[in-house]
TrEMBL record:
SUPFAM superfamilies linked: S-adenosyl-L-methionine-dependent methyltransferases
Source organism of this protein record: Ligilactobacillus ubinensis
Protein known as: Ribosomal RNA small subunit methyltransferase A
Sequence positions that bind S-adenosyl-L-methionine: N32, L34, G59, E80, D105, N130
Keywords from the named record: Cytoplasm, Methyltransferase, RNA-binding, rRNA processing, S-adenosyl-L-methionine, Transferase
Catalytic activity of the protein: adenosine(1518)/adenosine(1519) in 16S rRNA + 4 S-adenosyl-L-methionine = N(6)-dimethyladenosine(1518)/N(6)-dimethyladenosine(1519) in 16S rRNA + 4 S-adenosyl-L-homocysteine + 4 H(+); adenosine(2085) in 23S rRNA + 2 S-adenosyl-L-methionine = N(6)-dimethyladenosine(2085) in 23S rRNA + 2 S-adenosyl-L-homocysteine + 2 H(+)
Chain ranges of the Ribosomal RNA adenine methylase transferase N-terminal domain: 39-215
Sequence similarity: Belongs to the class I-like SAM-binding methyltransferase superfamily. rRNA adenine N(6)-methyltransferase family. RsmA subfamily.
Domain of life: Bacteria
Function: Specifically dimethylates two adjacent adenosines (A1518 and A1519) in the loop of a conserved hairpin near the 3'-end of 16S rRNA in the 30S particle. May play a critical role in biogenesis of 30S subunits.
Length: 296
């Protein structure tokens, strides 16, 4: 039955849905609807969605990606913050019995409760979504902080942000966000999505990024809170040396300077180096060395 009418993402169907409901795009919610079915199928493929998977989608819009997910997944739970879209989704996704749409803000959602309510707990759990540009990083960090066991996260975001998440040491995009993500997850850019496949067309291209939680971290700092504080502080002023940023973080008193110097020696890191050249392993060593020398 679902195949008797054009797929939601087709430009003609998208236009018809928008006109039928008198919909306008909310800039405040970062709404851009994808109108290329092949791109949507590539997203589902990148997430390796199958009937073994339950999927949470964030911001289904008018249901274009949701429809493609439903064709492959066991069950789909779509969280939509825009109340205007609920009746639209009720109609566009009516042919699919394996979709639940909930009026919910992902940043306020209790994922554990939602999962217990809508899923049977017998399938892998994945997040697949086209994230609003304006709130991409908070959503990713929120998902990182959850206790829910995720088999994978495959999301679309602004290309520049995706590059920062996946950046390697020594590159201009590498920073505290790269480390925060890569400390917890394996991260790679799956493919680029041109701005021309969206309505309305955004100003920049997008990218699909694949994130997989690490089963075991190769390096663990003695104190994770201190480790993350150090990383943020080390990138406080990107053009300054690590030595200068560490003084900005811990202080410039003579005894503190001496402790910083000892910690750098212990971690075998040159004071003149910039933070962008340090690997996660080196940040872990430095974090522990600073603790050994009384700096928290």
């Amino acid at each position: 039955m679902a195949n008797e009418i054009p797929e939601i993402a087709s430009p003609t169907r998208t236009k018809a849905i928008m006109e039928a409901y008198g919909l306008t795009f909310k800039k405040s919610l970062g709404q851009n609807f994808l109108t290329d079915i092949n791109v949507l199928k590539k997203i589902v493929s990148a997430a390796q969605v199958s009937t073994d998977d339950d999927v949470i989608e964030i911001g289904p819009g008018i249901g274009a990606l949701t429809e493609q997910l439903a064709k492959k997944a066991h069950q789909v739970l779509a969280l939509e913050i825009d109340e205007r879209l609920l009746p639209v989704l009720s109609e566009t996704l009516a042919p699919y019995s394996n979709i639940q749409v909930v009026h919910q803000d992902i940043l306020k959602a209790d994922l554990e409760k939602l999962i217990a309510r809508y899923f049977d707990g017998k399938h892998n759990l994945k997040i697949v979504a086209n994230l609003p540009y304006y709130i991409t990083t908070p959503i990713i960090m929120h998902l990182l902080s959850t206790k829910v066991k995720l088999a994978g996260i495959v999301v679309m975001m602004q290309k520049e942000v995706a590059n920062r998440l996946a950046a390697k040491p020594g590159t201009k995009d590498y920073g505290s966000l790269s480390i925060a993500i890569q400390y917890e997850m394996d991260c790679e850019v799956a493919f680029i999505v041109p701005k021309t496949v969206f309505v309305p067309q955004p100003k920049v291209d997008s990218a699909i990024i694949s994130l997989t939680m690490k089963e075991h971290k190769s390096e663990m700092p003695q104190d994770e809170t201190h480790f993350h504080k150090l990383v943020k502080g080390a990138f406080m002023h990107r053009r300054k040396s690590l030595w200068n940023n560490l003084q900005g973080l811990y202080g410039k008193e003579a005894d503190i300077k001496e402790s910083i110097e000892k910690a750098l020696q212990l971690a075998q890191i040159e004071p003149s180096i910039r933070a962008e050249r340090l690997t996660i392993t080196e940040f872990v060593k430095l974090s522990d060395a600073l603790l050994v020398n009384g700096l928290k």
